[in-house]
Amino acid sequence: MSGADAAAAVPARPGTLVSLLTLYRLLLRTQITIPRLLGIAALGALSVVIGLFARWDASSAQAAVDSVSSYGLGVLVPLAALWLGTSAIGDLVEDRLLVYLWLKPVPRWQLPAAAALATASVVLPLTAVPLAASALVAGAEGAVAWAALLAASLAALAYAALFVAAGIWSRRAVWWGLAFVLLWENVAAHAAEGAARFTVIGWAASILGLAPEVDVRLEAGSPSEAFVILPAIAITAWLAATWRYRRTDID
């Protein structure tokens, strides 16, 4: 066989962007199911209902920030990301379908990246938009709604990457993730002094401080720091997921 024939026999590696988009579309289709969409949409609708009740508070802007911080960033965004993120690759492992993607001639970092992006693509609009709407329904100014939108969007990105990584690392990622959200992100973040600096909710809540004349009760730092820390969390989680994926036994 000539050198040209040997080269032709080797399957061509698709372009980086092409293969990443292909994996993204594949995982996005697996993420979008009616039960998941309805479940997250119901949780998002509840945030708007909470906003209606906040409207009757003496300070509607403060009530809106409190509800976005406690329910939106503490419950809605992390639970939605947990539901989708842990199953993005975890389901492929459980169903023994990951081998088909493993054999594709694409860099190993692309599947975790595509999974995190696909998860965030679903979680972000289904959580950030209702939280911004809840602030407007509460009668708060547009600045509060924008701050809520930004905080929820960056939190969705960070949580999505974290839970995608968890889905690769553990077969019980849902339970570990649920314990993480309830005990660390909610209980420890509020109860232990300084713990907020090591939580996603703490940094996401800091972005709510962009809104004028509101008191953010859970702050990890300044909003400008949060705009750096939250993407850094997402990137670190993606790197951890890639490292684990490269060393996973595929069968």
Q: Can you put this structure into words, describing what you see?
A:
The protein has one domain (16-246). Helices cover 76% and strands 0% of the residues. It has 10 helices and no strands. The protein has helices at residues 3-9, 16-31, 34-54, 60-94, 98-102, 110-137, 142-169, 173-191, 200-207, 223-246. The radius of gyration is 20 Å and the shape is elongated. The chain starts with a helix and ends in a 5-residue tail after the last helix. Residues 6-10 have low confidence and may be disordered.
- The total count of strands amounts to 0
Major β-sheet, in short?
A: none
Radius of gyration: 20 Å
| Structural class designation | mainly alpha
Give unreliable regions as ranges. 6-10
Helical content band = over 70%
Q: How many helices does DSSP assign?
A: 10
The figure for the number of domains is 1
General form: elongated
Distance between the termini: 33 Å
What's the overall average pLDDT, rounded? 87
Provide the fold topology.
Blueprint: H1 3-9, H2 16-31, H3 34-54, H4 60-94, H5 98-102, H6 110-137, H7 142-169, H8 173-191, H9 200-207, H10 223-246
